[in-house]
Amino acid sequence: MLTLPESVLIEDEALRDGLQNEQRLFSVAEKRELVAAIAEAGVRRIQVGSFVSPKWAPQMANTDELFAVLPARPGLVYSALVLNRAGLDRALAAGVKHLSISVSASETHSRKNANKSVDEALADILPTIERALAEGIAVRAGVQSALGCGYEGAIDPRQVLRIARLFRDAGAREINIADTAGLADPQLVHRVVTTLRDDLGADVTLSLHLHDTRGLGLANMLAGLQAGVTVFDAAVGGLGGCPFIPAATGNIATEDAVFALGRMGVATGVDWMKLRPVALRLAELLGRKLPGRMAYIDGGPDGARA
Amino acid sequence: MLTLPESVLIEDEALRDGLQNEQRLFSVAEKRELVAAIAEAGVRRIQVGSFVSPKWAPQMANTDELFAVLPARPGLVYSALVLNRAGLDRALAAGVKHLSISVSASETHSRKNANKSVDEALADILPTIERALAEGIAVRAGVQSALGCGYEGAIDPRQVLRIARLFRDAGAREINIADTAGLADPQLVHRVVTTLRDDLGADVTLSLHLHDTRGLGLANMLAGLQAGVTVFDAAVGGLGGCPFIPAATGNIATEDAVFALGRMGVATGVDWMKLRPVALRLAELLGRKLPGRMAYIDGGPDGARA
């Protein structure tokens, strides 16, 4: 038997990481309907948007408005992404109770994405984390491009560890390791997670954000599980990445991850069958087939439904 | 660190399992060119066809002719699939030195595929294995639908073990566990492989045949590696399965598997970059994009080539 956790938490990011690069703008009503369906399937944390400049991410421009219409639901956390103090101000005004705040471990990615060096981004982000915590907001601090960078290639795990320590010292109790471009392999996932876990101690929960660029998304999830990770990001339909490059680079599909976890005896509280219509609805709205698999497969006699 | 073998053998099956359901018939010259390119990339075992009825698999009808034109190459094994005595006779006439001989672990699959019960198929296959071995042919004996059946669902691992023991007793020294429909999960792969390995002993090599139907192909490979498997089937481009069903059900792509193995420090002797043009050539001949990933991805700055 492979040694795996008994249960994990799934954070769905279809509405944020999934949609942020899509040209077709989704209305608040459409987003609300999708969030409700994802919640109905049993997902307990949903990242529904980000508070970044509408100039760079027009799809995210209605995130404030969306928060105003999301119904409270016991046991369900709505989260959003923030990359600087200005974003935190908007999140506070919108009444957000859980935030993802992140920097990139790659100098080049940081400069291209945030127009700052890694240290400049940290100088802005660390007080932002502290302020959010002081306001009573739950914060998850993320390291983008932690397992490889599309510009630079390999990322030194010591850089990831250095950032993670600063996050912990700023008070973050969940640290997200993001394979932003989908470049990780299972051995690397296992090594980086183990290194961070051993160094940061049991007070810090490590979560993984995986993309399926090279078909290794679920293999990387398996390695993360074996290293003790109990929180995974995913996106319904395997949405995400740029639709204009030939190889799909989406997030791991929530329905595929949940199905696989269930098969391996790892509880998620999510009914993957209820995510299928959500994935098919997203595919319909976007006008193309999505990369996730289980939305397109019949349950069949092999007990896929179980 | 995940504990993985130092090296593995890759058997490419693009020409057999990959092409067998394709409508476009490939000429001997085209197949020969593809085999040569796969060999040039460093693959040491290539399953190039099968000796089955041309009525059921017209694509395989020129397998005899193909064997006559394949150049001998040191360290390279050309293999073929045989499902009964008639096939063995054709293979012997063609001078084949390595055969895959298999039965299904699923009663329903066996009846649909071979028009025989599992025990009827075994009664035919076991003497065929013995005769092939007596003729000096290397034999790998395979259990189809060993990890799930598209008709029946779950397959009892005791049924797989029963067949594997009969294969071993007939003299087979490599036993192939095939996830014919791509229904396995990593925990099941690990459990079945471990059960068989513990029972059959070290004289028998276990190999795995994996499909990527649910996006778990490489995760299942990872579980197999952790259970000590050192021989994996794959197909360039991720070819295989029926092109007329919406979810791709191809084999794990050889270039993706080789890339991932290299990244994890598992040697294959194969240069995945040399498989990219083969995958693109297959895509061109078939007139569609194939499901494998690495053929469509630039090496980029992340050292994907390394």
Describe the structure.
The first copy, chain A, is of the alpha/beta class and 306 residues long. Chain A has helices at residues 14-18, 28-40, 63-69, 85-94, 107-114, 118-134, 157-169, 186-200, 217-226, 254-263, 272-286, and strands at 9-12, 45-51, 77-82, 98-104, 138-144, 174-178, 205-209, 231-234. Chain A has one domain: TIM Barrel (Alpha-Beta Barrel), CATH 3.20.20.70. Chain A is 40% helix and 15% strand. An 8-stranded parallel beta barrel of chain A has the order 1-2-3-4-5-6-7-8, surrounded by 8 helices. In chain A, helix 8 (186-200) runs parallel beside helix 9 and helix 10 runs antiparallel to helix 11 (272-286). The interface between A and B is large, with 50 and 50 residues.
Helix-strand layout with pairing:
2 copies of one chain form a homodimer.
Chain A: E1 9-12, H1 14-18, H2 28-40, E2 45-51, H3 63-69, E3 77-82, H4 85-94, E4 98-104, H5 107-114, H6 118-134, E5 138-144, H7 157-169, E6 174-178, H8 186-200, E7 205-209, H9 217-226, E8 231-234, H10 254-263, H11 272-286
Parallel strand pairs in A: 1-2, 1-8, 2-3, 3-4, 4-5, 5-6, 6-7, 7-8
> What's the CATH topology name of chain A?
TIM Barrel
The CATH level-2 architecture of chain A is identified as Alpha-Beta Barrel
CATH class of chain A: Alpha Beta
Point out poorly predicted stretches of chain A: none
The SS-based structural class of chain A is alpha/beta
- Tell me the count of domains of chain A: 1
Which two chains touch over the largest interface?
A: A-B, 50 and 50 residues
Number of helices of chain A: 11
Within CATH, the superfamily of chain A carries the name Aldolase class I
